[in-house]
Amino acid sequence: MNNNTHKLKYLINIRKGKNPNQFMDTGLIPYLTMDYLRYRDKDIKYPQLDDDLIFIDKNEILVLWDGANAGEIIKSRKGILSSTMAHITSRHKSLKNNFLYYLLKNHEQVLKEFAGGTTIPHLSPSSLLHFSFFIPKLTEQTAIANFLDKKTSQIDKAIELKERTIALLKERKQIVIQDLVTGKKVWNQEKQEWTKPIQVKDSGVEWLGEIPEHWEVEKLKFSGKIYAGLSGKSGVDFSKEPKKNHKPYIPFTNIYNNTVIDVNDYHFVKIDEYEQQNYVKNNDLLFLMSSETLEDIGKNALFKDKTSVFLNSFCKGFRIYDKNVYPEYLNYLLLASPYREYFAMVARGFTRINLKQEYVLNMPILKLDLKEQQKIATFLDEKTAKIDKAIELKEQAIEKLKELKATLIDSAVTGKMKVNEK
């Protein structure tokens, strides 16, 4: 390699996406949300076109600027650049865009670690521009990029096959949960198995449909009280590591990633001696009230810990006071597809999706005998644990493939591996 060191700020241009004035139901040019870029095309958005918006062609370099995965490098589809992303191009003749993509991809994890923010991770331009790189000659760049295009494509196909299997397992898990928590199947004592209920009635809620005759419907607000997450905090108050005068809090990623809060994934926030903030208590339900996608909005997780912890600002907690509501059952109920679709229906926003707390409080929940709730939750704990184990094994295999891909990219772009230029 020709070991010429260059600072990235002298080599690239960065264009940040903008918020459209208006979205339409149909159109010719889609808005490049992360869902769309990941080929999840269920809810495509079409912005009203104006001169301020940035059109992006296929296979351009994008970096996610805001959100849980801030710092992620991704290739584009054709469309309008979203406000949570930035477009990166080479502005120097010594650096080819196809090589630049792999150069940045090789530092993706570092960029993610640099992403900061009190509640939602955010990547600053300085984090990206301060890097210095060895830039090989143009013929080497072309050879490396072509080599990596071929090899990473093969790895990506293997990953895709395993991701399809995971999707099927998750679908199976969702069906098992939905059938039991919404009463499509009930425990048949005589047959000692889950069967369709003999007597049913209209729930009175269109998206819930029929329910067992002895079940009832009631708004969530009658079962407890909602409370807010942290308030009045700035970036300097937060830390991922323990510090003096800092107390543990639950980051929104912990709710996003889990059904039950992971007690080993707390972050830390400075709390003054007489400061008034809401504590999270054992058996509280926690909700994501702001998200990047409709798929995740309203996502809930159950807190099962006696530790005194606080809650991320973009979340709400719900404390159950009704002794006839079993927290584990309610947690499963709200993870079922009809409730996920309900939250997606009532949430608002385009670049950032938000959920008003009245939609949580006025949400209809199913009321049934406490012992029946416990039986459902216990069965689902056992059944979903087996499915989760199968998913975990596939995810571990994917992680190994991703590590192989990352090692391959690193070896090629840093010159540890010699790539034939012919």
What does this structure look like?
The chain is α+β, with helices and mostly antiparallel strands and 422 residues long. Among the domains are: 4-126, DNA methylase specificity domains (Adenine-n6-DNA-methyltransferase TaqI, Chain A, domain 2, Alpha-Beta Complex), CATH 3.90.220; 216-367, Alpha-Beta Complex (Adenine-n6-DNA-methyltransferase TaqI, Chain A, domain 2). Helices cover 34% and strands 22% of the residues. The chain contains 10 helices and 27 strands. Strands 2-10-7-8 form a 4-stranded antiparallel β-sheet, covered by helices on one side. A 4-stranded antiparallel β-sheet has the order 17-25-21-23. Helix 2 (97-105) crosses helix 10 (370-413). The chain is globular. The mean pLDDT is 92.
Notable characteristics:
422 residues; alpha+beta; Adenine-n6-DNA-methyltransferase TaqI, Chain A, domain 2; four-stranded antiparallel beta sheet; 10 helices; 27 strands; 34% helix
